[in-house]
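Here we describe the complex-level prediction in full. Unlike the single-chain runs in Section 2.1, the two entities below were treated as one system.
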Amino acid sequence: MERGNGTTQTAPPPPPAPAPRRRLTRRVDDKVVAGVASGLGAYFDLDPILFRIGFIVLSLAGGAGVIAYIVAWIVMPPSTGEASMGEHAVRRIRHRSGRWHDVPAWVAVALLIIGAALVASRFDVFHPEIVWGAVLIGLGVLLFHHASTARRDDAHPPAATDTLMPPPPPPTPGVGAGAGVLAPDDPTVRMEPAPRRRERSGLGWATVGLAMLATGVAAILDNAHVVSLSLAQYLAVALVIVAVGLLVGTWAGRARWLTVLGVLLIPPIVLSSLVIVPLRGGFGDRFYQPVGSTAGPYRLVAGNMTVDLTRMRLRPNSASVTATIVAGQMRVIVPAGDRVMVHGRVGAGELELFGRWTNGLKLDERRRAGPVTGPELDIGVAVSFGQIIVQRRGGPA
Amino acid sequence: MRRHEFDVWSFVPGAIFAAFGLAVLLAGVDVTEWSWSWVWPVPFVLAGLILLFTARRREPTAQEPPPPPPDPI
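The structure predicted for the assembly as a whole is:
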C-alpha cells in the first residue's frame, strides 16, 4: 500500500471474527435414523459409529438406548436450522402460559436427583436402574444445557455468525450496509453449506408392497391347503421380503429404514411361536356343560371359558373333550369319582392340573387321576397365553 | 435405482433378517427354545464387526506425497 502522494493508506485489519459457536444438531444430511449419532459425533469430534454402538448397547441393556435416542431426537434441532421438536412444543406451551420459562430448570434438577438416587441405590452394572438413572441424568443435563442456551439467546440475540441467515432482501436505494442490512458477500455471514439431499429411492415402499403381497399370497395358498403356515411363518415371509429389500439396498437404491420394520417384526414372530392353538372361536366368556360321550372342540380367541364335565356319560365307553383359547383363562371341572386323563398345554402362562401348579413358556403336562381301571375321560386343553385350571368337582383333589 | 457403494448398514440387518426369517419359515425354528445365553453375545459381535469394517473403510488409501528435498542453498 502506498502512503501520501501516490500511496494509499491501509485500513487496520478487522478484528478476527469470533469462532462460530458449535451447535449440537442432528445431522440430517448424514443420518441412519434421525442423525442423532452423526450430530453427536460432529459435536464431540468423534466417529458417529461410537455413538451408534453406544445406543445399540444401551438398547440391549434394558432398552434405555431407544429412550435416549428418542429423547435426543426430540431435544436436538436439525442441522437445517429449524427448531427441534422439543422447542416447538415448548413454544406452544409458552404461548399458552408465560410462566413456563423457569420450568425446565427445576425439571432438570428433579431428574438429576431421581437419576442420581437410582444410580446410588444400585451398583450392579447391568441392572436396569443404572441404565434408567443414567438416562434421567443425561436428560437432565440436556435440559440444563437447553434452558441455559435459551436464556443466553434471549439475553443476547445470536450474532449473524452463529445462525444461518436467510438470503438478504434486494438492496433498497439509499439503504446500504450502513443501515444495518448485510450484504450478500458480507464476510461476517457464515453461510452453512446446504444439506446434501439424498436421491429419493422407491426401494423401501416397493419392498413393503412386496411384503404385503407375499403375505397375502401365502394366506391364499394356506386357505387353499396348498401350504400350511403358522402365524410365525406368515410374519417370517414378510421379514424375508424386508431382508431382501435391505440386501438390494446394499448395492442399489436406499432403504435403511427397513431395518426398523424388520426389528418391529421380530417380537411378533417370537410371540407368535407361542400361539399353539388355532385362531378361532370368537371373544367373550363361555360356559359349556356337555352331556354326551364326546364334546368340543370348544374354541375361543380371547376371554374366559368354563367347561363343566360332571354330566358327561362315561359308561360303558370312554369319553373325550377338547378345548382351546388363544388368550384367556380356562377352567375345567371333572367328575369326582371317574378316571380322568388330562393333557394340558400352555404357550405362556400357568397350568394347574389337580392342584399341581406350574408356570412359564411352552408348558406341556399330562396327568391321570381317579381309579386305575374303567372308562376314561380324555381331556385335551390348550391355551396360548393365559391360564388353565383343571380340578375335580368341589376342589382340586 | 442407482448403484452405490457397498452399504454395510443395509447389508448387516438384511443378512440377519434373512437368516432369521428363513430359519422360521423353512426350518420351523422355535425362537422360544433358543438358549439366550448364546443369543445375547451375537449383537455385540455384529456391532464389533461393523465397527471394524467401518474403521477399515475410513482408513486413507492414498499415501501423501513425500516432502520435497531441502534446498541445498
